[in-house]
Amino acid sequence: MATIFFPSCKARADYKSASKKLAEYIKEKQGVSPIGCCRINHTKLEDGDRAIVVCNNCAAIIEENTHANIEFVWEMIDKDPDFVFPDYQGEKITVQDCWIAYEKRHLQETVRSLLRKMNFEIEELAENFEKTRFCGVNLLAPCTESNGKLAHNRYVVQGAHMFTPMTPEEQRQHFKEHCRQITTKRVACYCKFCKDGIVMGGKEGIHLLELLFPEES
Predict the structure, then answer these.
(1) SS3 of 51, please?
(2) pLDDT (0 to 100) of residue 129
(3) CA distance 145 to 3
(4) In angstroms, how far is the first alpha carbon of the chain from the final one?
(5) What whole-number distance in Å separates Cα of residue 23 and Cα of residue 54?
(6) Does pTM surpass 0.90?
């Protein structure tokens, strides 16, 4: 069975240094290099293949269109006894769960496990785990045609009611209201759209990739 690594197009674009370090890590541990966009390359997965993913949306697309076994990079790192975790010295940080993965409790718990291993003190939002309704601007604009087609069950059958399109100004106000409940300096996200929404709301959002693979000081 083949192993294919989907690095997330958006993560690679936004978190270049961290994504490069992640690719080097996956190459060392699994012997595979990143493949291109999941929207095209999910067709290369055969039954029983292993898909290593970063992005919740990639996971949804692969889940609905293949019979591959999906593993998030977070799970791989969490199980790696040799991974050297950066030490954030007891900093308090809020976790922002992502609606695209609202039912994936194993993923949500893994994210928190990684934060604890990086010596964070975790603060929870009221709408966490399966209660989350947050995915940044992704849910404040119409569902894209591509997502509606490739992850039809997630976005149309289950999630059509989640999309509430807003103007840019309405989006900013929405995120500011969301961020008023957050008391920590930083907010840990494992979704690019979630991070962007937190930043628009005036808080310092940071992606889990950036925390695990920080810039060299």
Answers:
(1) strand
(2) 98
(3) 28
(4) 40
(5) 11
(6) yes
The side-by-side arrangement of strands in the sheet containing 69-72 is: 3-6, 50-53, 69-72
30 token code pair: 């699994």
Q: Which residues of the chain have pLDDT under 70?
A: 217
Whether residue 188 contacts residue 204, with contact meaning beta carbons closer than 8 Å, is answered with no
119: left (phi over 0), alpha (psi -120 to 50) or beta: left
Torsion of CA 207, 119, 214, 56, to 10 degrees: -30
Say if residues 191 and 168 touch (Cβ distance below 8 Å).
no
User: For position 217, what pLDDT does the model report?
Assistant: 58
Q: For residues 134 and 104, give the distance between their C-alpha atoms in angstroms, rounded to a whole number.
A: 14
Residue 31 CB neighbour total at 10 angstroms: 8
Ramachandran region, residue 31 (left: φ > 0; alpha: ψ -120 to 50; beta: rest)? left
User: Are 65 and 47 spatial neighbours (Cβ–Cβ below 8 Å)?
Assistant: no
Amino acid at 156: V
Joined together, the tokens standing for residue 57 give 């949306």
Find all residues with CB under 8 Å of 112, minimum gap 6, and list them: 95, 122
- Count the residues in the chain: 217
Q: Which tokens in the block code for residue 112? A: 């928190």
